[in-house]
Amino acid sequence: MRILFLGDVVGRPGREAVQRELRDLRAALDADLVVANGENAAGGLGLTPATARELFSAGVDLMTTGNHVYKHREIYGYLDAEERIARPGNYPPGAPGRGLLLHALADGRRVAVLNLMGRTFMGDVDCPFRAADRLLAEVPDAVRVRLVDMHAEATSEKKALAYHLDGRVSAVLGTHTHVQTNDPHVLPAGTGYLTDAGMCGVSTGSILGMAPEPIVGRFLSGMPTRFTLAAGRGVLQGALVEVHDEMGITTGIRIF
Ligand SMILES: [Fe+2]
Ligand SMILES: [Fe+2]
Description:
6-stranded mixed beta sheet; 13 strands; Purple Acid Phosphatase, chain A, domain 2; 5-stranded mixed beta sheet; binds fe (ii) ion
C-alpha cells in the first residue's frame, strides 16, 4: 500500500494548496491512501466541521490531529460521529473522538491509523507509549498496515515511541513542529520513521505558517499577542510510505 501523508495543514493557504495540488500529487505518486494532519486547518488553530469537509472533498481520506484539536467547540460532536478523523489517543478517557481509525480501501485492503501526542514540552495527556500499546491491542491481527502520527515537540520522544513500536506498526510519522526533517528511514524491525512531515501552507516567509511579526513581538515583549496566518501561496509537504500489504513493514519512505 502506498500511503501519502501530509503534514499539518495550516489555515486557508494550506487548504487551498491541498485543493489545488493533492489530486495531481496523488496520481503522480500512485498513492492508495491520503492521510493528512488537520489540527491547524481552521485559521491556523484547530479544526471545524466545515474545514474538515473541505479537506475530505479535496481528496483527503483520513485525518489525524494534535494538541489544537479541541480549539473549536463545534468539532466535538463531529469528532464523535466522524470515523475518518483521529485525535490523539492518549487524551484522558471521555475526551471527544477516537485515537484509532480502522479503514478499508475501495479494493478491500484495510489500514489502521493511530494518533498519539507527546508530553515533553507539551500539554498534560496520558502516556503515549501505554496508549499505543492499548490501542494496538484493538487492531485486528489481519490488519497489517498500521500508520502512527506521533504529534510531538521532542525528537527524542518521537524516536523513542518509534523504537517502542518497531515491528508492531508499519510507520511512525512525526507532526507538530511544522518543519520537515530529512531523516526518513526504516528501523531494524521494519517500521518506517520520519521525525517531522512538515506542513501544508505558507512554509517559507512565515513562522510555522503564521505571520512572523506578532510572534517576534511576543518573544520581545513577553506579552500575549494575536497570531495571524502568513499571507502567500501554500505548498504541500509530507511523506510517501510504501508498506508491504501482508508483512506490514515499510519497504520505502521518502519526503516530498
Ligand atoms: Fe500543528
Ligand atoms: Fe501541534
